[in-house]
Amino acid sequence: MLVGSLTARSDPSQEGEAEERTSANNKRQRIAAASLPPRGVEVVAACSSSVMLMTSQRRSPRRAQAVVLVALVLSAAAGVGAGSIRPLDGSRRSLEEISKNAEYASDRVIVSFKTDVVVAMAAEEEGLQFMRPAGQQGSVVYSITDGADVADKIKQLEHHPAVAMVEPDYKVFAQWTNPDDTNINLQWHHPVIGSEKAWDVNTGSDVVKVCHVDSGVRVDHPDLAGNVLKGWNFVPAGQVEGTPPPRAGTPDYFNYNDTYGHGTHTAGIIGGIGNNRLGIAGINWRVKMLVCRFIWNDGSGYVSDAMNCIKLCNQEGAMITSNSWGGIGYSSFLEREIATSQSAGQLFVVASGNSGINLDDVPLYPTSYKSDNMISVASSGQEDFVSSFSNIGLGTVHMLAPGEAIYSTFMDGGYKLMWGTSMACPMVAGTAALLQAQAMSRGVTLGYADLKSLILNSVDKVADGADKTITGGRLNVSAAMTALGQLLVQRGAITPVSLPTASPPPAPRPPAPRPPPAGGAVYNGGTSLAFAAPVCGTSPLRGLNSATQSSTVLTYQANHAIDGECKKRRLWQGSCSRTKLQENPWWAVKLPARKSVLGVSLQTGIDCGCVSDLQGTQIWVGSAPWTSPASAANFTLCATVPGIARGQRRTFSCALGVGGAPPSGQYIAVLRPTAGKKALTLCEVDAVYGPNLTLQSVRQPARGLLGQLQAQLGSAVAAVPSS
What residue intervals traverse the membrane (predicted)? Predict the structure, then answer.
């Protein structure tokens, strides 16, 4: 639920307040959907944070003043792809299967022994010769020296008393499990939470049922239809206040088609079909979602309907429930219903909510219930900062998951960007389903306690979550899958599953400022020229249309940072530039001509969910095009950013160089040196510059140069110590 509360049918930028409803005809509590699209949401997993439960009071028709907490939406296109996965069941294949379906080396076998001690096995008598160790478990590669083929050698060694296992040395191929869907690159959350590594083990299963309690789903969406098992509807036709929900067994009762949008989006996060060359990929490429529609088109619903949804999902054998809704006060009925789901063995995943409050101080439900089968999920951004809109609670909220600019399916049959804890919740519910799929493929069915433990104990610890959540960490699907492999080993289901982990790259060295030219020129780096900071969006950079950046995420193009739209400081408003997550991201602009740059103003975004203070970011000026961080060798350092708060603007004076001159050139670049992958978000860039200073003027004393600049730019220019 992000950006704030909205009145029904209002613009997402407006804020509303929750009211208590006193209507004598209907005293059921309402639930306000916590994401942002204009209508619809499908649920079958329980993520109660995006759709906020709120107690509302109506003096007029139900929708007229219905309060809705919404997470803002932007549209875009998305895609996915996949690859084959090799079974990891540890079972021994028949020799017939080996010869028919596998490729392997014809001159050797791999052997493991029943003890760690090398057995007195006369290798030569067995027609073998030691070649090399294999792996860390004491396995050994032996070459075949007696002319036998691999199948015969395996038959021979299987009867040796010292041999625990023998297999061919299989030929392996790069098994791309990255989806081939068209816009998987727009789903930034997958690499952050390790989905792609987890998909090397499992991509989901048709036997896992996830209950999605929301506004329904677009029933014929090509990225969802195959993963929806069945559903129910508690939203009356016409959506008129006081109209009862559809009766069980009627056509309307089974019409769970989404007309609000929220449910379709959250459903795609859980189970958008993967590897189908369309749109997006969910955490599960295959899953069976039970969809219960109870959120109306104003983004709210009723506790009684939510309870019926939970009941139906229990009856249908749902293992996980995703609830992206919440925001009410304490309800004994709802608490009891959730307790019933616990008795049925369900994991109940719920969104923490989008009010930006501490739930330890102001509890809201259902996220503040203490049922053992619950996981409460807050929202984080690309750089693991807690989202400004997200509810937190060191004793209430369990963990973080991505909830900003999440690209998923939408009710119009296409795809949308949405923000909110509503998006974070299905990330976790989907992860639970993926873990269950892997466990069931090994003959084990996990209870809610196992799923909860695997997820919470495998989070990536993040600094910003340490005092805001119980675990202090953000979802890591890959780590949870690795932990599951270890659990299955303990239970005798499989041999250890190990996923590769990439070691963090070394911190890059910040480019050194270009040394001053030789010839006895004086480098006066201790001062800069003070000047009146330009009014945001009014500098000569506005409208140049010549900006570039190291990469572009979604539609956040480089030129957005010089469009003059200074009041639009949120990503969804479409007026900020943003790079992808990468090492040393940068932004640059070409000036109309060579200029002496006196200073540069930077404005950050409010909702980028990143280390948006930009501490350590560097501003460079040069004459040649900036194409990479290596371009700094031919540029002059103007300033290093000490920090900028989210959504704020700050102006930096360029340090004076040779002869007291400011840096001169036709290009301005903003570089963010990073250790690891980060993004660079800029909502407006302004510059103050004067005419190009000639070499003759540069060689003048600093005082004379200052006088020249004052004459050209006004008496507001003064020499001040640089900072």
Answer: 66-85
For residue 146, the tally of other CB atoms under 10 A from its CB is 13
Residue written as token pair 């006066």? 524
Written as one string, the DSSP assignment of 597-660 is EEEEEEE--SS--S-TT-TT-EEEEESSPP-SGGGGGGEEEEEE-----TT-EEEEEPBP-BTT
Kind and range of the H or E run holding 402: strand 399-402
Residue 515 carries which DSSP code? P
Look at domain 70-83+180-490 and name its CATH class. alpha beta
- Please classify residue 500 by burial: count the beta carbons closer than 10 Å to its beta carbon, then call 0-12 exposed, 13-18 middle and 19+ buried: exposed
- Residue 75's nearest CA partner among 405, 561, 549 is 405
450: pLDDT strictly greater than 90: yes
Tokens of 447: 């209870």
pLDDT at 604: 81
**Per-residue pLDDT band at 541 (split at 50, 70, 90):** confident
Residue 574 is predicted with a pLDDT of 72
218 CB-near residues (< 8 Å, 6+ apart): 40, 42, 224, 257, 258, 264, 409, 410, 411, 412, 413
| DSSP state, residue 706 | H
Q: pLDDT value at position 276?
A: 85
> Using one digit for the tens of pLDDT, what is the confidence trace for 642-684?
888 777 888 888 887 766 778 889 899 999 998 778 888 888 8
* Residue 318 pLDDT greater than 80, yes or no: yes
pLDDT at 395 over 50: yes
Give the C-alpha separation, 409 to 527, whole Å. Answer: 54
- C-alpha distances in Å from residue 366, one per residue of 227, 267, 351, 393, 420: 27, 20, 9, 14, 16
- Outline where DSSP puts E strands in 249-302: 286-293, 300-302
Q: Is residue 716 classed exposed, middle or buried when 0-12, 13-18 and 19+ CB atoms within 10 A define those classes?
A: exposed
- The DSSP letter of residue 700 is S
Torsion sign (Cα): 446, 448, 453, 459: positive
**Surface-to-core class of residue 133, CB atoms within 10 Å of its CB (0-12 exposed, 13-18 middle, 19+ buried):** exposed
Domain 527-721, CATH number (from 1.10.620.20, 2.20.28.90, 3.40.50.970, 2.60.120.260): 2.60.120.260
The Cα 594–Cα 367 span in angstroms is: 58
| Domain spans in the chain, listed from the N-terminal domain onward | 70-83+180-490, 527-721
- Residues forming the active site: 214, 262, 422
8 Å CB contact between 585 and 626: no
Dihedral angle over CA of 466, 471, 473, 474, nearest 10: -140
C-alpha dihedral (345, 347, 348, 354), degrees to nearest 10: 170
Tens digit of each residue's pLDDT (9 = 90 or more) over 132-168: 554 334 557 688 998 888 888 888 888 888 888 777 6
SS3 1: coil
Residue type at position 390: S
Q: What is the DSSP string of 154-174?
A: HHHHHT-TTEEEEEEEE----
Nearest 5°: the CA angle 686, 692, 698 is 120
Are 461 and 472 in contact, with CB atoms under 8 Å apart? yes
If phi > 0 it is left, if psi is from -120 to 50 it is alpha, else beta; for residue 494 that is: beta
Query: Can you tell me the mean pLDDT for 503-531?
Result: 44
pLDDT of residue 2: 32
Q: How far apart are CA 367 and CA 607, in angstroms?
A: 23
- pLDDT digit string, tens, across residues 169-194: 643 221 222 334 445 667 889 999 99
Output the 3-class SS for 433-497.
HHHHHHHHHCCCCCCHHHHHHHHHCCCEECHHHCCCCCCCEECCHHHHHHHHHHHHHHCCCCCCC
The whole-angstrom separation of Cα 567 and Cα 630 is 34
